[in-house]
Write a structure and sequence with these properties.
5 helices
Amino acid sequence: MTNHFNRSLAITGLLMILAAAAVNGCATSRPTDGSQVDSAGADRMVKNLTPAIERLYLGWHELDRIHKEIKFLERGLLTDPDDRQLGYVQKVSLYIQDASLRIHHGWERLSVLGYVRPEMMRDYVTLNVRSLTSAMTEIQYDTQFLSIYAAFVDNPAIVADIERAQGKIGENLDEMGRIVEMLTPLANPATSPAL
């Protein structure tokens, strides 16, 4: 009987604590540098970034189309007696796809900015600055390896597509850099040299 009473009392106490937390709010705000993003500021930021985000999407879409063309042309090499060409084209395709995925993931995270609550905007922007900066570094590595393998590709149609892909990757990198420049002042102050 006493055990049942203690359990009921514990459950009642837990419910009271949860109710008090719900009334008072569970989350305490973290101290920042004093500036908050209000609803109007968040809307203005999203409006200013929308053209760049749209250009990033269009650039990614074009890069994805070029990648698919290279994959289609790659099929013609399946019966080629020089299987090294197939290997070079597959490596080129892999690095183009890797860069394309990184660009697309960056766009995906940016495309939902309009749905982020204003009080969470600074944290979300900070995460985007860090992830875009990291993605840009990785894409630069992709382009270096892409250039190495592209030098060995002989097929003129594939070479032309590779050159178009390299140009499109460069344009997307530039666009990502502009977006990072726009977001950095709105991010939380740097806590490490990585930002």
